[in-house]
UniProtKB/TrEMBL annotation:
Protein name: Ribosomal RNA small subunit methyltransferase G
Species lineage: Bacteria, Bacillati, Actinomycetota, Actinomycetes, Pseudonocardiales
Taxonomic source organism: Pseudonocardia ammonioxydans
Gene3D superfamilies (alphabetical): Vaccinia Virus protein VP39 (3.40.50.150)
Compartments, as annotated in UniProt: Cytoplasm
Role noted for this protein: Specifically methylates the N7 position of a guanine in 16S rRNA.
Cited Pfam families: GidB (PF02527)
């Protein structure tokens, strides 16, 4: 068996199921995958080992998040990286208003180029979700998304402040999601989050299904206790 890595090049054609997910925008989705397979790998946004699984593991896996996003929602994608899940979500759901938040300049430059080429009405913000200026510009979101950014407790600290009361963070996670929810429940509640709910989405599209953890914002973070001076 060869151990060579695919370091970029033409992407695989769109699988038939992509038409079901993206409808008349499937051509744009294929163009996005082409960007990932070429400049995305060349410029370090996607690992070379991912070249042959861009459709199922990344793009379709992200796009099926649309199943649990309400209509006409204002969506903030935290730590967007190569635009995942934000760009596939925008392609699958043109009714959504989406901003991608990404701190690294080289990634922001790539995102701007790709979004312009695809003609998407998606904003890109260079910065970190916890920065006051970013929070002021994008707070009040209906949904905040994240994928492969960190543990739930940390994600709650980044995502919940950007949400309106009653909004929800939707985080793509793996098979260990139930254990992570149990481990971080106290920290999440202290940050203003409610009880977590797990969704398995993408039936008939991806295998395994995409695991999404939903956590609503039900309040403000509890103030930290000041340490008493001795």
């Amino acid at each position: 068996m060869s151990t060579e890595q695919n370091t970029g090049g033409a992407a695989a054609p769109a699988p038939e199921v992509a038409g079901t997910v993206f409808g008349e925008r499937v051509g744009l989705a294929a163009r996005y995958v082409e960007h990932l397979a070429t400049s995305g790998i060349e410029r370090g946004l996607i690992g070379p080992r991912e070249h042959d699984r861009l459709w199922d593991r990344h793009v379709l896996n992200s796009a099926v998040l649309a199943e649990v996003v309400p209509s006409d929602a204002k969506v903030v994608d935290v730590g967007s990286g190569a635009g995942l899940p934000g760009i596939p979500l925008a392609l699958a759901r043109p009714d959504l208003r989406i901003v991608l938040i990404e701190p690294l300049a080289r990634r922001v430059d790539w995102l701007d180029e790709v979004i312009a080429d695809l003609g998407l009405d998606v904003a890109v913000e260079r910065g970190r979700a916890e920065e006051p200026a970013v929070l002021r510009r994008w707070e009040g979101a209906d949904v905040v998304t994240a994928r492969a950014v960190g543990p739930l407790a940390r994600l709650a600290g980044l995502c919940l402040p950007l949400l309106r009361p009653g909004g929800a963070m939707l985080v793509l996670k793996g098979a260990s999601a139930p254990e992570e929810i149990a481990r971080d429940a106290t920290a999440v509640r202290a940050l203003g989050g409610g009880d977590a709910r797990i969704h398995e989405v993408g039936d008939g599209v991806v295998d395994p299904l995409t695991t999404v953890v939903e956590i609503p914002r039900i309040g403000a973070p509890r103030p930290k206790r000041r340490k008493e001076r001795r």
